[in-house]
């Protein structure tokens, strides 16, 4: 039964993704979500070629090839690695590839940002789609891109919707192992390690930050599903479509370590208001959840501020302050679907629409610090 539900979850998710790609002009036409036997397709009549295409053919111009991300264009170095969880009693073995981007002339003691891709993506797609490497070149920070394998999940989805020792927790702990290994190898500032993700990557980033708060100074979530509302694939799909099944904060105690004093988790959330994959209300529900995590009453939130009104960069920003800075920030983006805002629109699940999400996240991250983990000299 569980296998059937998992198949339904990913089958429906793929169809919704195709619907989104159609809206962007990136995929084949969507034929609907209805069940029943498939009907034979009628042979379509050939449509006359558009004048521009005819003119291009006459000039001998080939149609534009699909864009393929290429790390050779990066100014810094892009290197692949493999991480295997150590064999421990009762631990579920995980093997993950990950990629490290090192900007030119990166000094010792620089900050580090971990980026997690979404379903049907890879590390390089997210790197090029967000253009985060360009920001790293300017600002001086190390980038780490863990990558889900197709063996681990055939659509490269992180198991955020199965928070148990054999799935979501095992992946979160493996990513934390990558964080530790890379931080030590590259001698980064361990008080300034941040994590962010898109869609399934956003929800997994939150899981990593909640399980290993001693390593993560701040969290970024773009188009992520509400937390703690799923224990399996079918519940994950329901959380994506409809948000929290109960008061959002009620789901959080099960995800936050109870055996240690939780140090707090500054977080920035970005959500498109026309997202057809994740319920747009998830942004406000995540803000409520992270307010609970940080012990800050939600009614302290400042009135929403609106930026770039009337342009493709328009968004609203709501801050939940703690002291002199925002502990949780929510950016809601009108007109944006299920995509990284202000990214490279040639790459799936990234859109030119909206503000530069990479810049918004980095501005939020760069002033945040965490005490170094025990046993690690900063």
TrEMBL record:
GO terms for cellular component: extracellular region. The lineage of its organism: Bacteria, Pseudomonadati, Pseudomonadota, Betaproteobacteria, Burkholderiales. GO terms for molecular function: hydrolase activity. Keywords: Hydrolase, Signal. It comes from the Bacteria. Gene3D superfamilies: alpha/beta hydrolase. InterPro entries: AB_hydrolase_fold, Esterase_phb, Plant_Biomass_Hydrol_Est. This is Esterase.
């Amino acid at each position: 039964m569980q296998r059937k539900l998992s198949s339904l979850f990913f089958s429906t998710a793929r169809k919704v993704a195709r619907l989104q790609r159609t809206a962007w002009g990136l995929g084949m036409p969507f034929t609907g979500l209805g069940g029943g036997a498939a009907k034979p397709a009628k042979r379509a009549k050939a449509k006359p070629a558009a004048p521009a295409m005819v003119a291009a053919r006459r000039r001998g111009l080939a149609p534009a090839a699909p864009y393929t991300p290429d790390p050779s264009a990066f100014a810094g170095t892009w290197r692949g690695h493999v991480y295997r969880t150590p064999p421990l009693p009762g631990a579920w073995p995980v093997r993950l590839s990950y990629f490290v981007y090192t900007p030119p002339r990166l000094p010792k003691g620089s900050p580090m940002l971990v980026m997690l891709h979404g379903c049907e993506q890879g590390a390089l797609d997210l790197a090029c789609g967000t253009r985060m490497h360009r920001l790293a070149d300017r600002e001086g920070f190390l980038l780490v891109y863990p990558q889900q394998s197709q063996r681990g999940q055939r659509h490269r989805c992180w198991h955020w919707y199965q928070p148990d020792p054999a799935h979501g927790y095992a992946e979160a702990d493996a990513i934390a192992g990558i964080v530790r290994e890379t931080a030590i190898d590259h001698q980064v500032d361990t008080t300034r390690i941040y994590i962010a993700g898109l869609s399934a990557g956003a929800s997994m980033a939150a899981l990593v930050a909640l399980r290993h708060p001693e390593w993560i100074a701040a969290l970024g979530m773009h188009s992520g599903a509400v937390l703690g509302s799923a224990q399996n694939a079918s519940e994950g799909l329901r959380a994506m479509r409809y948000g929290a099944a109960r008061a959002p904060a009620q789901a959080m105690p099960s995800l936050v370590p109870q055996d240690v004093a939780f140090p707090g988790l500054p977080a920035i959330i970005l959500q498109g208001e026309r997202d057809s994959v994740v319920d747009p209300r998830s942004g406000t529900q995540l803000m409520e959840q992270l307010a609970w995590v940080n012990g800050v009453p939600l009614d302290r939130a400042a009135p929403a501020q609106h930026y770039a009104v009337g342009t493709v960069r328009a968004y609203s920003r709501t801050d939940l302050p703690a002291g002199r800075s925002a502990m949780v920030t929510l950016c809601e983006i009108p007109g944006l679907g299920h995509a990284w805002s202000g990214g490279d629109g040639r790459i799936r699940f990234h859109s030119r629409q909206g503000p530069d999400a990479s810049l918004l996240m980095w501005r939020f991250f760069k002033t945040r610090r965490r005490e170094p983990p025990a046993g690690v000299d900063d």
